Amino acid sequence: MQLTEQQLDIINSTGNIKINAIAGSGKTTTVIEYAATRPPESKILYLAFNKSVKTEAAKRFAAKGLNNVKVETAHSLAYQHIIPGSKYRIKQDNYKSHEIAGFLGIKMSGDKHNEFVISNHILKFISYFCNSDKERVQDLNYLDAVFDPKARKFVKTFHSFIEKQTRVILGKMDSAAIEITHDFYLKKFQLSAPVLAYDYILFDEGQDASAAMLDVFLKQPATKVIVGDTNQQIYGWRYAINSLEKAVFEEYHLSESFRFGKQIADLSIEILKWKNQTGTYKPVAITGKGNSSAVKSKATLARTNLSLLLKAIEFTEESRDSIYFEGNFSSYTYADEGASLYDVLNLWSNKRKFIRDPLIKTMKNVKELEDYIEKTDEKELGMMLGIVKKYGNDIPGLIKKIKERHLGNHEKHQAGMIFSTVHRCKGMEYDEVYLADDFINEEKLEKLMEEIGDDAPDISKLNEEINLLYVAVTRTRNRIHIPESIVPEGVSGSEQIRIIKSEKKRAGEKGKLSPVTMEKFRPAATAASAIPKTEKTYSLEKFRAIHKEAYKPWTPQLDDELTTLYCKGIDIPQMTSHFGRNAGAIKSRIKKLELVDLYGIRDSTAVPVNTD
Asked: How far is CA 77 from the centre of its chain?
């Protein structure tokens, strides 16, 4: 394998370094090569972002014969140091608000469900503390982690009580009176000030590390390498910090992406330039070296579960293809609090006897749920309620249809469309990507900046919204379909960037096609009208002699080819020659694929007749 100059500079470096690596730049390959060039007797630790990355990395290090490299996640490393031989029992799933309320015996006067709202904030404060580098709960101000105005108002009123009860629950965990969480033993690990017996520590995905794990990493005597992409930080809501910016090491860059080409690279740069509005933009070099033209995997990516589910419903109504959800479809229908989409539906439809979740079961109506969501800023519950309000009692049938089409993990490669939120597809790549229209855009960004002014926490959140779009765009190897509402100013459509018109504009353009215009193209509407008038009929054999592919089915590959030619503005006569089909067949397929609606009129001869 031919390494780039940037990769060689990293491999030949000495001392503590940080690597800012853009999407698709071969950072894992670089880190493996770095490890391979260290002294063979060296003990090396590689810290992976999650379990799936750990498994894949372990295979790659082993394939290179690097048996001196130990691969762990932050939690697996902490587990080995804290749990064996201890009195602790681990809670495998997260605690729920009603469980915390029960442990503490919280009874609140005033608004109903306040005890559950308080408990929800206690859980979040526990997570905030366990992921921090602070020694005591009192060293943190929980309000710094609460952004929603209504939730902040509630927390301000009860802050001292929330802090006190947070310490009570942590005390119960520490004494093993109740089960501990995974974040708790990570915190215990950090507070124990461990000294790890390694010569080199390689810390991957540093932009989304917790402050607790960064503290452990920075205090090690080993030679340290931290790698990530500052523009891919998208886990601030889990109290992650951009550790790359915190590490004062010599900085190296990987700015050449082997995943995508120049057009996608340029689009990515224009999106990141939006950070000029937040005053945080740092010019970044992104060179697209990818040249893939294959389209074997297609993915629809969204910012939220709600938008993703809407896209999946649309897809199942318009296509018979199989589908796959990254991270298992069922996980998209449950909130962290434990409530399911069906619980919210049963509350909405007043079928309370079917509600299984203990928290939702205490609520008499949707208004009480809305009040809870406002005071806790529980976004997942809010999105579920949005789905219920939109689809109501159609939800069971829609979910059934999705599940019937859904493939198992081992069949993912056979899916006609993969669906994922950006958070769940971190580290993934696909040949062709379709984006939902729920991402931030320049107009929204400008309005939000006017509202928040110089509020640092809110600016950090806006940067993360920009990062989400950047991460989504850089999942593609070949082509992206992007709603025009989120396309940066000055970016034009191309073979690799397909700009999808908004529903309003699509509807408007349909209305703009005048009867005169339609009449102009009506004679070419069908195969029959393409036959010269001097000859009333053709035999099938004679027709096929002229149009060799007539009556043969269109394949997905031919549809992709047709879409590409259409977007390039190739006219109908050239298409008929290319595909061996008559003009009517070409126009009919253009209409079937809704290419005019999606991409506008690229060539007037390609406008199909409206036969509705």
From this structure: 26
pLDDT the model gives residue 578: 85
In the predicted model, is pLDDT for residue 428 greater than 50? yes
Q: What is the pLDDT of residues 449-483, one digit of tens each?
A: 887 766 655 788 899 999 999 999 999 999 999 99
**Residue 602: pLDDT band by 50, 70, 90 thresholds?**
low
How far apart are alpha carbons 541 and 218 in whole angstroms?
77
| Residue 447 CA from chain centroid, whole number | 24
Residues 6+ apart with CB under 8 A from 75: 182, 185, 186
Q: Count Cβ neighbours within 10 Å for each residue of 240-268 and write b for 16 or more, e otherwise.
A: bbbbbebbeeeebbbebbbbbbbbbbbbb
Residue type, 236: G
- Backbone dihedral angles phi then psi of residue 553, each to the nearest 5 degrees: -70, 150
DSSP string, 402-436: HHHHBPPGGGGGG-SEEEEETTTTTT--EEEEEE-
pLDDT at residue number 379: 86
Q: Centre a 10 Å sphere on the Cβ of residue 467 and count the other Cβ atoms it contains.
A: 25
Q: Would you say 122 and 162 are in contact if contact means Cβ atoms under 8 Å apart?
A: yes
Q: Phi-psi bin for 149: left (phi > 0), alpha (psi -120 to 50), beta?
A: alpha
* Buried-exposed string 360-398: b where 16+ CB fall within 10 A, e elsewhere: bbebeebebbebbbbbbbbbbbbbbbbbbeebeeebeeb
In the DSSP assignment, the letter for residue 322 is: -
User: For residue 85, how many other CB atoms are within 10 A of its CB?
Assistant: 6
Residue range 75-99: average pLDDT? 95
Question: Residue 401 in contact with residue 306, Cβ under 8 Å?
Answer: no
Asked if residues 429 and 24 have their Cβ atoms less than 8 Å apart, the reply is yes
Tokens linked to 363: 């609520």
Q: Is 89 left (phi over 0), alpha (psi -120 to 50) or beta?
A: beta
Distance CA 531, CA 584 (A): 10
Pull the structure tokens for residue 311: 């896209």
Q: Which two tokens stand for residue 371?
A: 């009040």
Q: Residues 494, 232, 289, CA angle at the centre, nearest 5°? A: 45
Instruction: Give how far Cα 72 sits from Cα of 42, 157, 204, 348, Å.
Output: 17, 42, 11, 44
CA-based nearest residue to 574, from 530, 602, 605: 605
| pTM for the model | 0.78
Closest CA to 273 of 286, 260, 257: 286
Q: Band the pLDDT of 237: cuts 50, 70, 90.
A: confident
* Residue closest to 417 by CA, chosen among 258, 558, 593, 556: 556
At residue 154, the pLDDT reads 93
Instruction: Please give the Cα distance from 275 to 462 (Å, whole number).
Output: 9
CB 77 within 8 A of CB 210: no
Please say whether the beta carbons of 199 and 38 come within 8 A: yes
**Closest among 244, 287, 282, 247 to 265, alpha carbons compared:** 287
The amino acid sitting at 492 is S
Residues 119-178 have pLDDT tens digits of: 999 999 999 999 999 999 999 999 999 988 899 999 999 999 999 999 999 999 999 999
Instruction: Decide if 25 contacts 256 (C-beta within 8 A).
Output: yes
Name the DSSP letter for residue 179: P
Integer Cα distance of 143 and 155 in angstroms: 7
Residue 483's identity, in one-letter code, is P
Instruction: Render pLDDT for 529-562 as a digit per residue (tens, 0 to 9).
Output: 333 333 334 444 444 455 555 557 788 778 778 8
